[in-house]
TrEMBL record:
Coiled coil: none annotated. It is found in: Membrane. The lineage of its organism: Eukaryota, Viridiplantae, Streptophyta, Embryophyta, Tracheophyta. GO terms for cellular component: membrane. PANTHER family: O-FUCOSYLTRANSFERASE 2-RELATED, PROTEIN PECTIC ARABINOGALACTAN SYNTHESIS-RELATED. Its main location: membrane. It comes from Triticum aestivum (Wheat). Gene3D superfamilies: 3.40.50.11350. Residues 1-62 are annotated as: Disordered. Residues 7-19, 26-39 have a biased composition (Low complexity). It comes from the Eukaryota. CDD domains: O-FucT_plant. GO terms for molecular function: glycosyltransferase activity. This is O-fucosyltransferase family protein. The keyword Glycoprotein applies.
């Protein structure tokens, strides 16, 4: 028995000194979850408690199956001294909190990084990021630096320099062609050349053309008495061809009574050298065509000042047109609350404008075929066979010479900060493409109205007799707006911009989109919205309608500062 006990003790000693046993003991001692069990295992007179716990060996077996780094991370195995255990657990807690924060913020971060497109299109609906309305949205941020006032009117002590009736050079007669605003410019130029040649001006005739097809007379739109009386100290104006002249039809048909081939933007000296001798010879002469037949920087400053006087003071719409425009503007301001600001948008996207631009636009194959046929019919010499138009259209769009589509101007307005609550008055003809083409703009700005939607049928009935009367209403409502936005060039937009500058409304915004920048930005599908919006805001800070010093070849109607305004 003694030998048996001795051999058993020796075997136990050898087992306790084996490497596997030492590793097992060290693992049990270092594990915080096993420490209490190990302590209990040494109770009961040194008997091994592992034998009395059927669960612990199984638990210990699963711990051993985990990789060593994971056992350390889960605090099943701490490789550091016990003194560093608390700091280690605090670090784990901090990492866990950071992980939770990252999980909660992941959706917003993902949407931020995953938003390369400006807007998302769903069917005909365009979804763009929401923006907050800046405080300066309805004011020109640089208006405080502009101290200009209108000064085109005659001074009260300025004597009349109109020659007596029997000493004038003769009579001139012009056809004012095009739409209302092109006709307005022609009237201003007619007064100017009458002044240059010291001739008598016969009240211009508003000529019908192929687009407008309107038989409006001068007296149907403008206050004739005010026009003649206001300019009585500048130019002699008569209502009709003198009775003693019996060949009235010749003014419309005979080449003997017509001065042609006047170059565009001709100088004052050209009229003195080439037109005045014929007027003196024939007494009464007709001038046509008369679109843009007088320059700006090649005429005396006083003549340009006279053109401003005609445009901003002598040409007044009839009282009923003025009153209706006031009603429409008041309705716009009171649609949601009293004194609500409104934007006026001049949307140039009629079929004629789209065709004349020779630009390419998004649309179906059928639309493109129909537009090509329309262009070939209306402008055959420019269309030719159509093969050269595609590269030309791309080049024009890159240079910003194409009209903005309704969806494009909607994105620009949203980038500038205007919200879907913005009240917008739309001055436009029939938009090419109809409701589908207007859908992106209307979805982003649902408070979009026209004069026909603001006024009743009975209120508008009187003005439907003449297309130019409807155009006059649009002109005045846009002029009175808090913000005016143009989408393409043209006489309407130029005259509105110039009138707002001249009358002091340059303190409010008149936005002329940078279409060159927009064509590049809108063509980049990977441009982030924040970057796009920043580019739009910065590029339009200097395009908000402040008066600007003129330059060679400037447009008097859009920027009348140098000849017609002076320091306040």
């Amino acid at each position: 028995m003694a030998e048996l006990r001795h051999s058993t003790a020796a075997a136990a000693a050898r087992a306790s000194n084996s490497p596997a046993k030492r590793d097992s003991d060290a693992s049990s001692a270092s594990s915080p979850f096993a420490s209490t069990s190990a302590a209990r295992g040494r109770d009961d007179d040194g008997k091994d408690a592992h034998r009395s716990s059927p669960l612990l060996p199984h638990h210990h077996h699963h711990k051993q199956l985990l990789p060593s780094p994971l056992r350390s991370l889960l605090a099943l195995e701490d490789p550091r001294p016990p003194t560093a255990s608390l700091s280690y657990r605090i670090l784990l807690a901090v990492l866990a909190l950071l992980l939770l924060a990252a999980l909660f913020s992941a959706p917003s971060l993902w949407s931020s990084f995953n938003a390369p497109y400006l807007c998302q299109k769903e069917g005909i609906t365009l979804h763009c990021p929401q923006t907050k309305e800046p405080l300066s949205l309805w004011e020109n941020p640089r208006a405080a630096t502009a101290s200009w006032k209108p000064c085109a009117e005659r001074r009260s002590d300025e004597p009349s320099d109109v020659p007596p009736e029997n000493e004038t050079s003769g009579y001139i007669f012009i056809h004012a062609e095009g739409g209302l605003n092109q006709q307005r410019i022609a009237i201003c130029n007619a007064v100017a050349i009458a002044k240059i040649m010291e001739a008598t001006l016969i009240l211009p005739v508003l000529k019908q053309d192929q687009i407008w097809k309107d038989q409006t007379k001068f007296e149907d739109i403008f206050d004739v008495d005010h026009f003649i009386n206001y300019l009585k100290d500048d130019v002699r104006i008569v209502r009709d061809i003198p009775d003693w002249f019996t060949e009235k039809d010749e003014l419309f048909t005979s080449i003997k009574r017509t001065v042609k081939n006047i170059p565009k933007y001709a100088s004052a000296q050209f009229y003195i050298d080439n037109v005045l001798p014929r007027i003196k010879e024939k007494t009464i002469m007709s001038i046509k065509p008369f679109v843009d037949r007088l320059g700006y920087d090649n005429v005396p400053m006083e003549i340009n000042r006279l053109r401003c006087r005609v445009n901003y003071h002598a040409l007044k719409f009839l009282p009923d047109i003025e009153e209706m425009a006031d009603k429409l503007a008041t309705k716009m301001r009171n649609r949601t609350s009293s004194g609500n600001p409104y934007m006026a948008l001049h949307l140039r996207y009629e079929k004629g404008m789209v065709g004349l631009s020779f630009c390419d636009f998004a649309g179906t194959r059928e639309e493109k075929v129909m537009m090509a046929a329309y262009r070939q019919k209306e402008w055959p010499r420019r269309f030719k066979n159509g093969s050269h138009l595609w590269p030309l259209a791309l080049q024009k769009r890159k240079e910003g010479r194409c009209p903005l589509e309704p969806g494009e101007i909607a994105v620009i307005l949203r980038a500038l900060g205007y919200t879907r609550e913005t009240q917008i008055y739309v001055a436009s003809g029939q938009v090419y493409g109809g409701k589908n083409r207007m859908a992106p703009l209307r979805n982003m700005f649902p408070n979009l109205v026209t004069k026909e939607e603001l006024a009743s049928t009975a209120e508008m009935e009187h003005f439907r007799k003449h297309v130019t009367s409807l155009a006059a209403l649009d002109f005045l409502v846009c002029l009175k707006s808090d913000v005016f936005v143009m989408t393409h060039g043209g006489n309407f937009a130029k005259l509105i911009m110039g009138a707002r500058r001249y009358s002091g409304r340059h303190r409010l915004k008149s936005i002329k989109p940078d279409k060159g920048l927009m064509s590049k930005s809108l063509g980049d599908p990977y441009l982030a919205w924040a970057s796009f919006a920043e580019d739009v805001v910065i590029s339009h800070q200097a395009r908000a309608g402040l008066p600007e010093p003129t330059f060679p070849g400037y447009d008097l109607w859009e920027n009348p500062l140098t000849p017609c305004m002076c320091r306040a």
